[in-house]
Amino acid sequence: MATPTLNTRPPIPTWRSSIVLKSVMAVSGLILVGFLIAHAYGNFKVFSGQEAFDAYSAYLREIGQPLLPYSGALWILRIVLLAAIGAHIYAAVTLWRRNRGATAGKGAARYVSSNARRGHQRSYASFTMRWGGVVIGLFVIYHILHLTTNHIAPGGASGSPYERTVNGFEIWWVVATYTIALIALGFHLRHGLWAAFASIGWNRSPRVRANLNFAATVVAVAMILAFLIPPFAVLFGVV
Ligand code: HEM
Description:
Layout: H1 18-43, H2 50-62, H3 72-102, H4 122-148, H5 161-169, H6 172-200, H7 206-235
Helix pairs in contact: 1-3, 1-6, 1-7, 4-6, 6-7
Protoporphyrin IX containing FE (HEM) binds at residues 39, 43, 57, 60, 74, 78, 136, 140, 143-144, 147-148, 161, 165, 178, 182, 185, 227, 230-231.
């Protein structure tokens, strides 16, 4: 009779269990999506002209005054966003390493798909989520240096957020860099939403799976179009 092997590894604490980490991915992802919806909506103020756009930017810094200091609410939002990004990346990396460890470094065929050459979506998902995540991270740094701090000022620096936005998006390659980053964000969102639906347990049949895939695609495309409308409106002289 074969001698049973003992698992000598220390048990994983509950807060680091895969189910908790999956929930962390979903909750932090939802916080980030909530920010994106509010941000995309706010960007449409560019169609209301310079005064309205700059007043909106100033208002974001005055929320909660005098209870909070100037920019206080904005700093709370920034800290929440940074915490959400940190938790999202930590949970993603831990789950990915656990998956590799459990499958002798090969990864597992988790999302079975008859469309994929290898019979599962691993290469598509890993490319979209990992490299897409890196592109989005680099974009956010570039974007803050461009439109918040204005250290990067293609088209000319300005104290007016409206002028910063319009000066930048009048240049085709600035719009191109944003478009590339937003396409990466779209793929990331589409797959992230789909994975969240699957984690919740909604992926119960091929028919439901097709509907969930469709819903994830619609949300991602709508979000990306909402973000891309203002830059292209500036580029084509509508704003
Ligand atoms: C083409 C679409 C976008 C436009 C036109 C745009 C516009 C702007 C503007 C004008 C600001 C400065 C606001 C101010 O200082 O009052 C800003 C800040 C910011 N944007 Fe965007 N944005 C776009 C896409 C995105 C995307 C896709 C993300 C995230 C993935 C993002 C994340 C941020 C962040 C984190 C800030 C800094 C907020 C802060 O700490 O002050 N933006 N954006």
